[in-house]
Records
---
Amino acid sequence: MPGYGVVGADEGRGLLPWKWAEARLVAAHDYWLATTRPDGGPHVMPVWGVWANGVLWVSTSRQSYKFRHLDRDPRCTVTNDDAYRPVVIDGLAEVHRDEPTIRRFVEWLNAKYTTSYAIDFQDPDVNATISITPRTVFALDEDDFTGTPTRWRL
């Protein structure tokens, strides 16, 4: 990568395995969700979320800017909360309204954050249950900044 001094594939520690990225997505307490405003400007907010089955799951009020942005344009970028070992997802958001999916998300959320939300917390008319399916993922380990930048196309 010109300008950054990133070494070739046969130098440094090498490309990161996918399980490395997934472990950081599972472990993250918070995620930063970037959406696009109607005028094309960026909008970034922290959210709670759960990485499960190769997808990031989040929720937000249907009145929030982030929901309105995703409703208009489902393309988004999400990062974990670790600037030293970042995992950056470019993906597509999908809103779910069916009870089995919402129930599963609430169970995952309760297990991760040791909360006890009932399914009505995710009333689909009030709060959106959103899955973000990765299209590309980028990650690196700050301990080997020039040797580990890795991109996956999913």
---
Amino acid sequence: MRLRLPHAPYVANKIAIDLLNSPLVTLTRGVEPVVHTARDVLEEELKKEAALDERVREIIEENEDEIEYNLADSRELFKLIKKRLAPEYGVILDYEDKYNDYAHKILRKLYEEDLINYAVPDNRVKNIIFDSIMNYIRSYDEIEDVVLEKISHYKKKLIPGSEEFELVFQRMFEDELRRRGMLV
């Protein structure tokens, strides 16, 4: 699964909870400032990737006739163009490297803003943040399946994509995150 902008608040909460529960870290101003800072870093990084994706789509649209003429695979072209432009946008494409970079940036920002204290090597605290990101990603599909299963048993049938469906899905998704200790 790839992190997207709507996931940022949930991942930030998971990071804050995991840091709070770690015996290696002390939160100097509580959970909320940590959540806010982690969310800001994640959103900034995810917006960079969204901007890159948008630019790649524009390039493909601009060359649509040539792509069709050459019978090129637009998905493969998307990947190739994105790979070429990624350094220009400051985007890392390998997921593990990307999330490791996010963890470093979050740690740096938390430390700079004096939101956390620790007496262990930076890498140990960075690993807590990285593990939080990865655990959220691993849990997402499972949580989504649980929520969709619950929605399917509603008496009133909700239409996927409708506003009502999205509201119910989000509420149930957040309830499931809380139940698993991933949301404050």
---
Amino acid sequence: MRLKLRFVVGSALIVAAVAYLITTAIRSTSEYYLTVNEVAARQAELGGQTLRIAGRVKPGTILWDPSSLTLKFAIVQIPEPDRDGAVKSVSSTDPVSFNVVSTGEPKPDMFAEGRDVIVEGRLLSAGEIAATQVLTSCPSKYQAKKAK
């Protein structure tokens, strides 16, 4: 009977350890991202925290210095698509935007104006994000240009 009790206790410890590893792995890899408008509404509360923010690169704001690997740009809220599913362009006068500064990382291959990005980094005061990672996304639906 003593051997059976040791086996049950040992099995329970192994199951508990595996369950702990699974839950911590899921928590660390399933981070929720916030939109630009959500961050702007909660900026005082979120200041200094590490966040993931989804937005669109604002036209005319990209500054890339390849010698120091410094990328600066602004992100704005991703506009809702039209009724026919067409992607709207970002206005250069969008009132809510955040300045992003990423240093020490190469510029992502598909990074461009008007591209959707997810920025992971620390929210600083004055609406600036010190990015540790910039992820770009490719369009989910390719459409041919309409003939005029």
